Each structure stands twice: as C-alpha cells, then as structure tokens.
Amino acid sequence: MSLLVLGSIALDTVKTPLEERADLLGGSASYASLAASFFSPVQLVGIVGEDFPQENITLFRKNRIDLEGLQVVPGKTFRWSGEYLWDMNQRETRSVELNVFENFSPELPESYRSARMILLGNIAPALQNHVLDQLTRPHFVIADTMDLWINVAKEELVRLIARVDMLILNDGEARELTGETSLIKAGRRIREMGPSFVAIKKGEHGCLLFGENQFFSCPAYPLEDIHDPTGAGDCFAGGLAGYLASRQLDALDPSKKQEISFELLRQAVVEGSVIASFNVESFSMDRLRTVTSADIAERYGIFRTLSRFEGL
Amino acid sequence: MSLLVLGSIALDTVKTPLEERADLLGGSASYASLAASFFSPVQLVGIVGEDFPQENITLFRKNRIDLEGLQVVPGKTFRWSGEYLWDMNQRETRSVELNVFENFSPELPESYRSARMILLGNIAPALQNHVLDQLTRPHFVIADTMDLWINVAKEELVRLIARVDMLILNDGEARELTGETSLIKAGRRIREMGPSFVAIKKGEHGCLLFGENQFFSCPAYPLEDIHDPTGAGDCFAGGLAGYLASRQLDALDPSKKQEISFELLRQAVVEGSVIASFNVESFSMDRLRTVTSADIAERYGIFRTLSRFEGL
User: Fold this and answer.
1) Which of B232, B240, B278, B286 has the greatest number of CB atoms lying within 10 Å of its CB?
2) CB–CB of B181 and A89 under 8 A?
3) By a Cβ cutoff of 8 Å, what residues of chain B touch chain A?
4) What does the angle CA A37 – CA A39 – CA A44 come to, to the nearest 5 degrees?
5) What is the rounded distance in angstroms from the CA atom of residue A142 to the CA atom of residue A3?
6) Cβ separation of A183 and B202 shorter than 8 Å?
7) Out of A88, A263, A308, closest to residue B310 by CB
C-alpha cells in the first residue's frame, strides 16, 4: 500500500562545527518520503520552484516516490539555512526564504484522494488540515509538528490534533503544548486531545510511545558521532509510517488488512528510529542513498539487543 | 552472600512543593542498604551520633542489615536539608551539618574484611579508598559518586575509579568527569579510566550500562507523580549491588559462584531501577518499608513489557 506524504521540500544550507554545505536536498517531505520508501511506495505532496535540481527528481523517482502531487511552479524553491553548535544538540536557524512555499495550497490529484495511510509531515497545520479535508476515507493518519506551530498557530494545530490517529512531536514540544513537565503526564494529556497514539521523541534518549493503557520506551541507537542531525525527526516519522503502510497489504481486502495494533506500532517506532539513526551519520540524505534493506534489518536486530534483558 | 555497604547515614529535612518533613532517615548508606536488603544480607559501614533514633536501628536490624560496622559516637548525626523546585527535577541544598561525619574514619571490623561484594556508596573518595585498602580479597567492587567529589576531590576520585570494577554516576557527572557531551563517548572514556563496567543514570530517561563492546539501555518506569526523589540514586546502586550479591551463592565454592557477566548486570540494573522507582513514590524510605518481594517481581515484569518489541 502507498503512503501519502505531505510536507516541505527545501534546498538547505547546513553548517556544523566541522563542515558547511549548500543546496542540499531537504525539507520534511523529502526526508520522510525517502525514509518511508524503504518500506512502501510513496505519493508525495509538495511544491518546488523551477530551480529545483533534476537530480533530486531523479532520486525521488528511483525510490518509488510518485510525483503526481508535486507542484513545480515559477519561482524559487523554499530555502532554509541552519547552524549546529559544537555539541550538535543545539541548532540556530540562520535564514529562511519561503519563496514558492509562501502561496502553497496543496491540491490532491484524484488518484491521491483515496489514500488510506497518511503522513502529514511537519508543515503549517492549516495545510495539514486542508489535505485531510480532501481525503475520502483515510484509515490511519499520522501528523508530525514542531514548536513553531505551537507558538504561531496553536488553535489550528489543536483542531488538527483532534482529527488524527497519531501525533509525533519532541519532548520540549510535548511539554510546551500541555504545560506538563512530566512527559508521562504530557503523553496522557495529548491523547485526551484526540489521537489514539502519541510518540514523544527524546533525541539521544530515544522515544516514548503512548496508547490506551499501553506504553513503550524505545532506546536510542548509541552513536558516538553525529554528522548532521537535520531531518532525523522527519526520517523517524517517514520510516514509522512507511513500515505501517507496508504491513497493510491491501486495505480493500479485509483478509489482508492488518489492524494497527500497539504491537505493530512498537515495531514501527523502532523502524523509524533505525532510519533516523542512519540519516544522522552523513549530511543531508547521503547515508540514506546507500543504506540497504540488509543494513536496516541488521540495525533493527541491534536495537533488540540494546534493550533486551532476561526474566528472573 | 552479604554485601558490604559504605556511605553516609543522615537525618534529612526535605521540602517539596507539597510537603515538608524533618528528621527523616537518609544518607547514601541508609538508602543503599535498605534497597540491597531485598536481595541479600548487608554489612553496613557508617557513623551516627548519640541522637540517632533507635527506631532506625530497629529498621536496619529487621532488614538483615548487620551493624557491627556502624560507629555510634558522642555528638550529633550528620544532617542534610534540601528543597525540590516545582517540577521536582531541580534540587537546592538548604543546609549541611557534618557533625560526627567530620572526623569519620571507617575502620572495618575483622569479620567485614573478607567481604567479596562491595558497594562504596556516595561519600568522599578518600573514605572509599580507605575502605578498599582494608579489604583482603574483594571480588567485585562498585563505587557510586556525585558532582561534589568531581569538583573538590578529583584526584582522589580518579585514583578510586582506577581500582573499582564498576562506576555508577549520573549523566551530568559523566559529562563533567570526561569533558564529553556525548554520553556514549563519556561511557567509553570512563571505562578507559579503569572500571570494566559503567552505569550512567539519566533520571526520567532511564540508565545506560557500558561493558566491553556491550551496551544496555534500561528504560525508566513511567511514573506520573514523584513524591520525593531523595535517595533514588542510592537505591539504584543498592538494589543493583544487592541483586549481584544474591546471585553469588557462595564465592568460596566455585560450583556456586556465578561470573559477573554482562547478562547478569543487565538484570541487576533493572532490579536497581525497580527499587528506585518504588522509593520515589513516598518520602524518605516510607515506600521501601512496605514493598514486598511480589511487588518487586511484578514491577520487574512491567520493565520487561516497557521495552519489549517483536522481531521482524
């Protein structure tokens, strides 16, 4: 089954203490689509300008990412520039040029409207709601967000949260959204806002997954060096959603349709963590261009070893 | 097998946003001994003044904590007073009265010198080294420490670290001791200083255990409310060490002596986390006074559920 992915597509300039690179493929939809494509075909919804390099289009196509929903319009592609401080834990945005993104109104092609598995990647919640309005029978909707939208579009975000099956956000955002210091309380509070499932990302500390009276603590992969954290959250969401889509063999055939159980979501959270852990090993999507299914399966096994312990 | 526990014994005054209580039994050795006693007998090494309440002595004795190594001397018991801020994550020390602690020089009774399993609880590293000097054939030595000793007694602490089998410290302390921001690098660096094993406690994010080319990420128990975090780290160390001692049925009989393997340490880290998670549910050691072996076994099972996920 295909996964529909909405989000930004950008050309990034990233500076780390060791290196600076420009015109990198970036944006939430780019990262999430490529991450998801390891598990399932993707239908991409986004916008770029006429300056968007053909090699990126080629990369998407090569990875079974359908581009019927990609608008290519006169003007320049969205640009973002950021700098990581010496410990790679803090990031400063240096500049943002909205360009063609400024007037983006995602209109789904007819063939996308019946999508069942949806990832509303990090983008303005008004656009996330607008895409949701166009879907005829969504089966499972995942939304990712960021602190910016809590600050500038909270009402619209709260309206979105009430409509989705799963919300993904990081620890600071969960605390900001709920006013709770305890992440355990924050997870419960967000579930009360609508979603059956909530994933709270904690960076180097892994991820917490909340369901109804169910809880999963996913470890972080013990990386010694992080070369570029950009897109890690988008890869997590994309890998997670792509894995879920891959397990829904045919949503129209009940015998092949798997329930989105908490057990399945545990695995999906690990798959998302695996893809994100690869992504931060290189700039932009360089590592994702070379990683293989065997690499992913091997690291999934390592995640099992990390947190395994015997009964008494 | 008995566990030898060295550390402080205190009368604490603790203030949280909801409550303030005085003259509570506290100190690293008190918490660690009571935590360990769920798994093994304890030989306690510490000092108190003549004002130390008899009911605390009774509590120790009732929990198979041997007090031959407890010095009761003229003067007042060590007192500590602290306050937790509203989110319970930050603590301010309000006052410290060293009292009898000021001239403490732990001298082991003859029967303690042959101890095989040792927990050097949080106390000045000079005292930890001094106890280590008196042991005739230690099998496995665990040391706990805190930021104070990194700041005021680093040389002595580094000398201690080189002599122990396992070091326990928290994330901030690991970063301060090594100058590494990455906890993964910090864990490796501390192992290079001597100990075969390092446990880095991360509070609400659980704990990391490092061995030679081995790594374990232990989840935190998802508590919504913490009533008093005092002693959580000491309970973790005590539970861990007590569990290891309980698995060494008879160190003199090779057929009954179990190797301290990484597998066994994974379980010990979880047992320590279980005891610590109970301890923070009430003031002082109130919760540990009522918790049962069945409670502990049940929560160990919950820890397994928290981080479990299926293979692909």
Assistant:
1) B240
2) yes
3) 86-89, 181-185, 188, 202, 204-206, 208, 215-220, 222-225, 263, 266-267, 269-270, 297, 300-301, 304, 306-312
4) 35
5) 11
6) no
7) A263
End-to-end CA distance of chain B: 42
Gap between the Cα atoms of B20 and B14, Å rounded? 6
Contacts with B300 from chain A: Cβ below 8 Å: 311-312
What is the C-alpha separation between B43 and B50, in angstroms, rounded? 21
Contact status, residue A307 vs residue B307, Cβ threshold 8 Å = yes
Chain B closest CA to A226's CA: distance in Å?
10
Q: At what angle do helices A28-36 and A54-62 cross, to 10 degrees?
A: 30
**pLDDT in single tens digits along all 312 residues of chain A:** 899 999 999 999 999 988 999 999 999 999 999 999 999 999 999 999 999 999 999 999 999 999 999 999 999 999 999 999 877 778 899 999 999 999 999 999 999 999 999 999 999 999 999 999 999 999 999 999 999 999 999 999 999 999 999 999 999 999 999 999 999 999 999 999 999 999 999 999 999 999 999 999 999 999 988 889 999 999 999 999 999 999 986 655 666 666 799 999 999 999 999 999 999 999 989 999 999 999 999 999 999 999 999 998
Q: Which of B92, B80, B86, B62 is nearest to B122 (CA)?
A: B80
Measure in Å the smallest separation between the Cα of A32 and chain B Cα atoms: 21
Q: How far is A27 from A48, CA to CA, in rounded Å?
A: 11
Q: Say whether A311 and B297 touch across the interface (CB within 8 A).
A: no
d(CA A158, CA A168): 13
Nearest to B222 among A215, A300, A301 (CB): A215
Flag if B184 and A224 touch (Cβ within 8 Å).
yes
Cβ–Cβ gap B217/A219 under 8 Å? yes
Q: Is A188 helix (H, G, I), strand (E, B) or coil?
A: helix
Chain A with chain B: Cβ pairs closer than 8 A: 96
Count Cβ atoms below 10 Å from residue A220 Cβ, excluding itself.
22
Q: Which of B304, B309, B310 to mutate to test the interface with A (most CBs of A within 10 A)?
A: B309
**pTM of the prediction?**
0.95
Q: Do A89 and B307 touch (CB under 8 A)?
A: no
CA dihedral angle for residue A117, residue A215, residue B304, residue A203, rounded to 10 degrees: 80
3-class state of residue A137 by DSSP: coil
Instruction: Decide the pairing of beta strands B42-49 and B65-66.
Output: parallel
- Largest distance between two CA atoms of chain A: 65
* B28-36 helix and B232-247 helix, angle to the nearest 10 degrees: 40
Residue A69's alpha-carbon distances to A58, A113, A125, in angstroms, are 15, 11, 18
What ipTM was estimated for this complex? 0.92
